[in-house]
Amino acid sequence: MNGLTVRWSLADAAAGVADELRTYVAETSHAKFTGMSGLRFKTWRMVEGEWFEGCYVFVSDEARRAFQETFTAGAAEAPGSKIIGSSPVLIEECHIVAVAEGWDGFQATPRG
Prior knowledge:
- The protein is an alpha+beta fold.
- 32% of the residues lie in helices and 28% in strands.
- A four-stranded antiparallel sheet has the order 2-3-1-4.
- A hairpin with a 3-residue loop joins strand 2 and strand 3.
- It is globular.
């Protein structure tokens, strides 16, 4: 599977940015990526005060490449960059070896 990781540093971000990011994901970003053609799934991860990250898994290398090229070209203006106040520190393609779904199933909601 074709993956992409986009990470921002939160080391110099303003106070309250973690809550702003949670709200943005819940109210806007989750809906934007739900049902997106070429995307298998996306997860949003964060360690407050350290980093915020989007992890994407695409159906093909072509889908990943197209998204990565578009995102990279506008990374400085991406909503995450605007909220955090800086561009991503990492945009990295990767190979997802496997995904396992646990007994309790997958929860696809913007707030957990």
